[in-house]
Write a structure and sequence with these properties.
The chain is mainly α. The chain has 7 helices and no strands. This is Stage II sporulation protein M.
Amino acid sequence: MFKSKRLKETISNHVKSNMFLYSTVILFFSIGVAAGAFTVKSIDDVQKQSLINYLEGFFQILTNTNVDSMSVLSQSIKNNLQTSFIIWILGITVIGIPIALLIIGIRGFIIGFTVAFLINGLGLKGLFFTFSAIVPHNLIVIPCMIASCVISISFSMMIIKDRLAKRWTNNYWQKFFSYCLLMIILFIISIMGSLIEAYIIPVFIKLISNYLAP
């Protein structure tokens, strides 16, 4: 009980002390989502219909095919690891801040485009698919990515301030170790999202695949 309360206080203090960075990162993610959603409107009817036909064929395949959960898990963890590693690298460079924001913006764009296309092209079916296949694991992965970006940018800003002041923080290696540890913890948490994507989402999709198929 005490540890749980202390953990909540630590997370709360971290968010409060980095409120500006969290607001900035979330803003870039939101801009990406909005840009992705608006991009759907620029797709012509022929392209849109081709994508819809592809999705409907995919739903038909799902009704008769078993998903290889281990392959999905392996690919999901690999993707999350690559993203986490890139964000970690950006945190120890002076050029990492804009690129980290670009990464979170691109992830927002992908989600915004996917969700908007599904709902716009498939209506209620697309809405069902969104809540069964896209939302569940992203409820874990996206907050982890946002937190990783904030921590990465914060560490990068510390390096920049030290260089501008022509000094080196006495406890730099301690902060570097804490930075690495936090990034590892966030990656481990994101694996929970990968497990959901690999073992739970296919079950949801299977249950509604008959409804989604034309």
